[in-house]
Amino acid sequence: MALSRRTFSALAGSAALGLALGGSGGPGAPSAYAARSVPTGPAPAPPSADGRRHIVGYDRYSLLVDGRRLAVWSGELHPFRLPSPSLWRDVLQKMRAHGYNTVSIYVAWNYHSPAPGRYDFTGVRDLDLFLRTAAETGLYVILRPGPYINAEVDGGGFPGWLTATKGTARTDDPAYLSHVDEWLTQVDRIARRHLFTQGTGTVLLYQIENEYDSHVTEATGRAYMSHLYKKVRADGIDVPLFHNDKGRNGHWTPGSFDTGGERGGWLYGFDGYPSPYRTPPDWGRFGSGGTTGGATASPSTPGFVPEFGGGWFDPWGGAYFDGKGYAESRRTRDAAYERRFHLTNLANGLTLHNVYMTFGGTSWGWLPAPVVYTSYDYGAAIDEARNVTDKIAPMHQLGHLLQRVPDFAKLDRAAEVKAKGLKVYHLANPDTGAHVYVARNDGTDAVTTDLPTDAGDLRITVPGKDAKLLATGLSLGGRTLKYCTAQPVFCLTAGRTDIALFAGRPDDMAELVLSCPAEPAVQRLDPEAGWGFDGRDLHVNAPLGKGGLTRVLVEKGGSDTPLVLLFADDATSVRLFPYDTPSGTLLVYGPKLLRHVELRGSEIHLTGDVTDATSLEVWAPRGLDTLVWNGRALHTRVTLSGSLMTTDLLPEVPEVVLPELSGWRTRTENPEAGPNFDDSSWQVAGRTSSFSTTPVPDGQPVLFADDYGFHYGDVWYRGAFTDSRGLEEISLAYSTGTQGMLMAWLDGEPLGTHRMPVPDKTTTVRKGTWTDTAVLPVRERLRSPGRHVLSVLVRRMQHDQDGKALDTHKAARGLTAAAFRGAAPKVTWRIQGEGAPDPVRGPMNNGGLYGERQGWHLPGFRDHDWEEASFPRADRRQGVTWYRTAFRLSVPADVDASVGLTLEDDPYRAYRAQIFLNGWNLGQYINNVGPQHTFVLPNGILRTRGANTLALAVLSEFTTLSGPGAVRLTLLGRASGGVPVTPV
């Protein structure tokens, strides 16, 4: 039985805070606060910070919000991978419009904490702003603050300074937990201001830890998880908590660790990243069963996938996708892939889905983990440049289905159904009697066959490696659907009209049968449709994709409410946008995107995006007769279906012209290589012990960069010694992330460059720490008595993640040892890395290059005395060369243009470049490794109507001629509309 609000309020102030959440104290043990029976009914209203308390519970079918079933259709978005807060609203609005009701976010500890005891939640790190924006957009939030997040970010989200601290991470080590508690205190102070249960925000679920599959059977692991649980509860977080099991291990199910006596508020979830080349697995309530069967590990809680593959990441060199980058990820994990896998999940009773990623974004600066390069596009439905791709169709259709058709939140397995060439799942809603069929084709060729249903045999075609969902017995407002061979997408009521949308592949023929006790009045509003009445049923046929949207109006026939049947192919369906307002629901058809709706008197004010010329059609509550699009009133007419339709087309987006990049200036740097460089302010590398997992070589000082407070980017070493006579060879051992590099000079003369190899697909693609020794011969003319200086630049790349809880994030970065052949000089080492963290851009923006320490990357730096330069370049030197230029953009104010920077050169030239736009480190280009050649320049950092400064810091290896070659701006997308963008 659900709690009354009075009872919930009393509990919320007690130590039994979590009891009101519903749930289970262990497998099979129902909570006193889980609803015994919740009938199928309308979903909760879209969430907002409405000032009212809400009850969040669950049973084995779904979440329950204020006694109503909620199916969660969530998309993963990382605010830290989009360092322009204005654009958070852009992506969130795209997600809401395309069917998502929830956004899931990691909160990266390293992004907010530059040093122990220091935390920054301002500017691009304003978590409070993100949570407010999500609530304003009408999205629930799944909050995932770690402390460990993995996420293909540096150290798995652990701050750089944690690598040099005492304590074993991801255990109950008190030293580690003291840092964790400090972090969670900071996050939870913000999170509790946005709890949906309190009516102050839309945070619905909260995750502790991430894919923690170590120490599961050990006391330290259970104590660690219990500590996190109790800490979060003590901080006032009263929404359901969960952990995401890495795979299907049955780890951390309800009752598996101590939660302080609480018998509710804990969900079991598991992650899944199926291969597009394999058969979709049955991981839900009707799957293989047992503790390793997915959702069956926790039969009393709803099926929950906190991460389900919406793409996949790509490593340096592009091994996963044959060097073709994320375009190939999106091709292999396309709309059909998403449909086949997500429909399988739906058929297995999973009602909490989170698609990882829905928008991947950019691992800018020194944010990426060793296993990825700058782009984190992920092959997601919304690409890195914020373009909605063709992959959105199944996400859009399933999301709106789960929100608008309540039958799908409560389904039981029904009688087995077989169809030749297909795997069929048959489910039924025990309350409404609706039946659901998922027909999956795991072969490569299309299958046409008869599908037995409770409404008779249906002739269907399912393309290869695809799936189709069909339903019988659904309520379409005041009428009942007997069957349809196209997928239902939504049914809603706008004003006094019921509207139902059915969608499928282009050129499919939709056959729909509607039960009618009396003959209806039917109007074919578009010529493509056909209909007939046989005395009991209305039969409607419509080819999908012919002429866009096909409309059929049904009146009478046993109901006083008109019904508009809509038929669309995938491309058309994603231009239909339901929107709930306080006065009722609207349906908008035509634009590329619907962002927001406000009703003002008799006017409907809509904001959104247009790319191609299009009409605009709106079904709305009664009394509304005027359309205003992006502030401009439109001429309209009333259609036979009761909609308002524009009489003129909205114009297509205007062209955007980008300037050529010219006026380059250049300057070489690395004075640190010279023998007379003043390094007196550098730290002496004289430590003898370290908390690193890398052993300190006997008889040598600690040279690990992190031990001296240098955690990100490049690091310089200068070793002073006397007498190089007899010195034949210097061996420099070093440890880096993927694609690390070392350059060395003796008395300013280059000794050589060494780089780590490119990962291969089978053995090293996930390798996070690379170690090697650069063996560098010393030329005869460098052997002499007197003072000498060995200068070494290490591009350390990033810290390893700690996925197995082995403190692998503490592996050394930088030099680890130096050895000499032919002589045994006593070396005094000094070290220098990045300067103080940038107060705006954060600790992960800058490394330790001389130009970075001098501000050469900043827009205000005066470079008038630098040499003029033009591209392509063909230089040969070992070291660092900077290039700077300025350019202006004049994108129209009502156009959202996404712009990238493209670099291309002879693929055999060995060099790399850091890209700085207006001082922001937006990525690293490695010419002869790739696969990335185009880097997104986010609006807000990019001034689309103003002046910009671009700087490239190029590291050349001397082994080949180096560039840059071609450097140009690239238009990645454009639309009339967008959101207002504030510069950052």
TrEMBL record:
GO terms for biological process: carbohydrate metabolic process. Gene3D superfamilies: Beta-galactosidase, domain 2 (2.102.20.10), Beta-galactosidase, domain 3 (2.60.390.10), Galactose-binding domain-like (2.60.120.260), Glycosidases (3.20.20.80). Residues 405-576 form the Beta-galactosidase domain. The keyword Glycoprotein applies. Keywords: Glycoprotein, Glycosidase, Hydrolase, Signal. InterPro entries: Betagal_dom2, Betagal_dom2_sf, BetaGal_dom3, BetaGal_dom3_sf, BetaGal_jelly_roll_dom, Galactose-bd-like_sf, GH, Gly_Hdrlase_35_cat. It catalyses: Hydrolysis of terminal non-reducing beta-D-galactose residues in beta-D-galactosides. GO terms for molecular function: beta-galactosidase activity. Pfam families: BetaGal_ABD2, BetaGal_dom2, BetaGal_dom3, Glyco_hydro_35. Its EC number is 3.2.1.23. It is an enzyme of class 3 (hydrolase). Belongs to the glycosyl hydrolase 35 family. This is beta-galactosidase. It comes from Streptomyces lucensis JCM 4490. The lineage of its organism: Bacteria, Bacillati, Actinomycetota, Actinomycetes, Kitasatosporales.
